[in-house]
Amino acid sequence: MSKARRTIARYLKRHAVEVPPWVDLPAPAPQLGVCVVIPAYDELETIESVIRSLDVEELTPEQVEILVCVNNTVDSPASAQQANRNTIELLRRLQKEVPFALHILDRATEGRAFATDAGGVGHARRLLMDLATARLFEVGRFERGLIACLDGDSPADSGYLDAVSREMNRGPARSRPLAGVCRYRHPIPTEEVHARAIITYESWMRYFEAALQLVKTPYAFQSIGSCMVLTARGYAQADGVPPREALSDFYMLQKVVKTGSWGSVTRLRKPLVRPSARPSTRVPRGTGPSVRASMERAERRFEWVEPPRAFLELRRFFAALEAGFEDPGALRQAASPFLEEIIERWNGWRAIDSLRENAPDARRFRRQFHTYFDSLKIVKFANRSREKWGGVFIFDAVAQLEDAGAFGGELSFRCPSDGQPPGLSERIELLQALRSCDHGP
Question: Which residue from 92, 111, 132, 209 has the fewest beta carbons nearer than 10 Å?
Answer without folding.
Answer: 111
